[in-house]
Amino acid sequence: MKLSELSMNHISIANRDLINRILFDGVNDDGKPGDLIFVFGSLSANKYRVPHAVDLYKSGRSPKLLMSGGALEEPEAISMRKKAIEFGVPEQDIIVEAHSKNTVDNVLRSKEVIDEYLGLQNIRRILVVTTFYHIRRCYLTLKTFMPEHIEYSLCPAQDNNTRPNNW
Known about the structure:
This protein is of the alpha/beta class.
């Protein structure tokens, strides 16, 4: 059974606490700067994820944004790039991976794009932007498929539906 298939009516308080710990413990932005802000795509990425990533960029946390996602007719990454430019990010500071269809694909295809544009050997820390609910999966996928020397700052975006207090 998947966590997404669980009904809150059938989960005990103890199990809710366990699920909260699995999903959300340790998911706090450590405030460290990075070489790249990795923004995972979604239907609502322009509403929550892109503004958060742009705030991180404008605060000087990282010089580059990577928009990843290609599941729609207009790939999510292209739409996110346009939104970031509207928010004032220079086009040359945005890298796009527009072919991925899921989280693993985001990471594998983005790994190639990062290597091509920046060189994986030059990346020491990546700031990860997605929702609270998705960030643990993204982090574990990055740790599985990216080079071991890369560290991560988890920077969940505040959306209306996937925070620790309301999932």
